[in-house]
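in:
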């Protein structure tokens, strides 16, 4: 098998990027608060010789590094935010937080950003050695988990001159992402009522907490009358205090509204607003709402997907060892049969026993499955031809946003899969850099899919990154 010339450049830098991934894993920070993580990425970009732009799009934890001159602009998108409440000791196959209630990298973004920067570094070094014209960029993007940073970055023009965007996401089976994601909006509903003595003068009170609960009832009845793929989730942010003998004068609930496309999501959101208004009417309270973040649905790009698939097939599956398989089997033992079936189903496959790791490729002709979740990569995909790779980093059946994902985040299988993803991305980036026909076909495919209207941001015009709300 002939090796792609970019793979050597990936291998030359592996040690530093494993260290970067481990460093970010050890400082898990959430939505717009990734100060240590972005500092680590800035330090590595500087070390690797990129021209660094901090505070990108006015966001303190967004960064961009660029290298090269002239030619097309190929961008690699990275992330480094963690999740609240998913603290977990590394390599321990039972739930055991490092710190109870603390953050943890349960979605593998420590790996995601490190592999994307490694791929960008490999392309940078290849450009320098070969004298090839072109610019490569690494975008360090915060707040993918609920903060929609890339949607704000798109709105501010951060990707306006990018020709091709490439990214990936850690997972449990290697594949090119062909399905779409769900558009979503994250909205706070705040109810204001009137305090009163809950026993002495309950008739004088107007309970904001009652309004929150009635809104939940209304949404639950609405679920029967939504499109099948739509989703609505909620969390009570402020229940109005801890004194049950006081009628709660204020309460806040945060809703996430998802649907197949941004227009469908915005239509569903208007129905949610009507339910909130009804809850306020029933309780004689007042309700206001604020859209914190919103993202579009992902647009697949066929020419780029096919190019990435060729590189994946040339590379083959990740080179896991017997030691890796034994490690993964310990974590797979903590999973249910349903977890494992769901992993295969998500890739359009029939379950293949309890194979601990994906030492195979998802076939190119497997059915295209929707991603189910949401990502702000989607907003980039509406304005730049974008391709995304699913990595193989965890025991098969590991659910993202779980303690098992956090625990495996520094393991050898996770790192092996990270380097595998970097090779696939770097080779695809070089192909796009060298092949103007691929770039033109990718742009034509994007134009056909988004239609004459093009990208319409799901963000309200006055929305700003919700740094304070997410802190």
């Amino acid at each position: 098998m002939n090796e792609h010339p970019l793979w050597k450049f990936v291998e030359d830098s592996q040690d530093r990027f494993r260290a970067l991934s481990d460093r970010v894993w050890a400082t898990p920070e959430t939505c717009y608060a990734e100060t240590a993580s972005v500092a680590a990425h800035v330090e590595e970009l500087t070390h690797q010789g990129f021209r660094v732009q901090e505070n990108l799009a006015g966001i303190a934890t967004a960064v961009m590094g660029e290298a090269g001159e002239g030619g097309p602009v190929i961008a690699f998108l990275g992330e480094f935010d963690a999740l609240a409440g998913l603290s977990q000791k590394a390599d321990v196959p039972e739930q055991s937080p490092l710190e109870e209630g603390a953050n943890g990298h349960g979605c593998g973004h420590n790996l995601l950003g490190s592999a994307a920067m490694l791929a960008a570094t490999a392309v940078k070094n290849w450009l320098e050695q070969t004298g090839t014209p072109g610019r490569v960029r690494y975008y360090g993007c915060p707040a993918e988990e609920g903060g929609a940073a890339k949607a704000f970055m798109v709105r501010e023009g951060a990707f306006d001159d990018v020709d091709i965007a490439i990214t990936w996401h850690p997972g449990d089976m290697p594949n090119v992402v062909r399905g779409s994601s769900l558009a979503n909006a994250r909205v706070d509903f705040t109810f204001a009522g009137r305090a009163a003595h809950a026993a002495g003068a309950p008739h004088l009170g107007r309970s904001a907490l009652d309004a929150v609960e009635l809104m939940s009832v209304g949404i639950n009845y609405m679920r029967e009358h939504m499109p099948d793929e739509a989703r609505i989730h909620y969390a009570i942010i402020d229940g109005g205090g801890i004194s049950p003998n006081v009628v709660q004068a204020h309460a806040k609930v945060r809703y996430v509204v998802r649907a197949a496309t941004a227009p469908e999501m915005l239509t569903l959101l208007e129905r949610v607003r009507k339910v909130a208004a009804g809850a306020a009417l029933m309780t004689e309270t007042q309700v206001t709402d604020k859209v914190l973040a919103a993202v579009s649905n992902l647009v697949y790009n066929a020419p780029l997907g096919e190019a990435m698939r060729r590189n994946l097939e040339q590379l083959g599956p990740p080179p896991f060892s017997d030691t890796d398989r034994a490690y993964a089997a310990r974590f797979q033992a903590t999973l249910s049969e349903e977890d494992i079936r769901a992993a295969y189903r998500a890739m359009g496959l029939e379950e293949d026993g309890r194979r601990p790791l994906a030492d195979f490729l998802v076939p190119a002709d497997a059915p295209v499955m929707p991603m189910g979740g949401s990502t702000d990569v989607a907003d980039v995909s509406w304005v730049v031809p974008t391709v995304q790779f699913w990595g193989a980093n965890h025991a098969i059946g590991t659910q993202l946003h779980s303690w098992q994902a956090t625990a495996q985040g520094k393991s050898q299988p996770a790192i092996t899969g990270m380097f595998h993803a970097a090779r696939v991305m770097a080779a695809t980036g070089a192909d796009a850099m060298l092949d103007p026909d691929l770039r033109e076909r990718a742009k034509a495919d994007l134009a056909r899919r988004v239609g004459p209207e093009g990208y319409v941001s799901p963000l309200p015009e006055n929305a700003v990154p919700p740094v304070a709300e997410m802190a």
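note: The chain has a mean pLDDT of 96.
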